[in-house]
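Protein data sheet
==================
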Amino acid sequence: MMTRTVDATQELAAFLRARRERLDPHDFDLPSRQQARRTPGLRREEVAELAGVSIDYIVRLEQGRGLRPSANVVEALARALRLAPDERAYLFNLAQQRPRNADKPATTAAPPLARLVTDLSPLPAMLMNHRYDILAWNGEMARLLLDFDTLPPSQRNAMWLCLMHPEIREFYVDRERVVREGIAHLRAAWAAHPEDRALRDLIAEFTARDEDFARWWAERDIKVNGRGRKVLRHPEAGVIAVHFEVLMPLQDPDQRLVIYRAADEESRSAWDRLCAR
């Protein structure tokens, strides 16, 4: 019979035992022991050795005796038990700890997502990572915003363009709101990826070069916008209002798929005229 709530301590104990018992000792470079194995998987002392903790600590964890392992210990256990990414996240949740970002931030588009960006035509679409680096885009997005191919990779960043590019700086009708929302997202990303040096360098550059960014960054607003509305001042098509949607793929959670749609009939007509050219 299923319980109504999760007892995290007991589930942590059961999960550690189950994952230890499913491991094949032959897959590990462990000292050989003469005595026969009476249970499947690794012994507790072997897990303790691999994780760099005491045997007693493993025993108490597996007996559900109220321990709350630190993030470093959880990470060591995840490595010792060779947990898959989803299992690792589950272990961190049970231990009520926050995992460090083990993988390097994406700097290239995952191929299936790059194909999806192309397949979304005629809707303008692009793929970004958490620091707003633009990793992939379709022709419609380039036509609406900017030909990203003409930019060096270091400038293919949505916030950099909004702050530094002479054309894009004047592109948004409500520029202050757009920049403030971008800053609120970057601050959340900065806290979630404390080891991302490239993100820290970007924020330092923006703070040094743009007084508005420095002032608004200091206000410490936090907001992650998954959808919204922007009004664009296109040099050829005139004013175009768009609704945007931001989707995060489960397999590539560091990448964000951004899709634009015309927000009203006037904007749809302006977009059609632009595409017809």
User: Anything to note?
Assistant: Strands lie at 125-129, 134-137, 227-234, 238-247, 255-262. DSSP finds twelve helices and five strands in the chain.
